[in-house]
Amino acid sequence: MSEVKVKERIQVNPNIHFGKPCVAGTRITVQNVLELVKEGIAFEKIITDYYPDLENEDIRACVEYAMQVMAAEDIHIAAVPA
Questions:
Q1: Inside any domain, residue 79
Q2: Does some domain include residue 81?
Q3: Backbone phi, then psi, for 51, in 5-degree steps?
Q4: How far is CA 23 from CA 52, 60, 63, 80, 81, in A?
Q5: Which residues contact 49 (CB under 8 A, 6 or more apart)?
Q6: In a 3-state reduction of DSSP, which class is residue 39?
Q7: Kind of pairing, strands 22-23 and 10-11?
Q8: Is residue 78 part of a domain?
Q9: 58: phi > 0 → left, psi -120 to 50 → alpha, else beta; which?
């Protein structure tokens, strides 16, 4: 999915869920969608049983958004005393 599509489908608004990323035009957080994906629930079931306002492309955009965030994240490894 292209960067443009993710930007169209995922929005961050400080007035909705304290600025957590949500599917555009909804109050459904990316985190909530990813938790269902993590449980192995099929996209179609997520839509029919949990979020009928979503489309498959919205769920894909949530996954892509998470991948982009991880790719941009700086990881700092600190030594932990034994």
A1: no
A2: no
A3: -135, 80
A4: 13, 11, 11, 38, 42
A5: 41
A6: coil
A7: antiparallel
A8: no
A9: alpha
Supply the CATH number for residue 56's domain.
1.10.10.10
What pLDDT, in 10s, does the model give residues 36-68? 999 999 999 999 999 999 999 999 999 999 999
Residue located via tokens 């179609």: 44
Q: 55, 28 in Cβ contact below 8 A?
A: no
Range of the domain at 16: 3-72
Give dist(CA 36, CA 24) in Å, integer.
18
Question: Are 20 and 7 in contact, with CB atoms under 8 Å apart?
Answer: no
15-25 pLDDT, tens digit each: 999 999 999 99
Residue 77 placed within a domain = no
pTM reported for the whole predicted model: 0.84
Number of domains composing the chain: 1
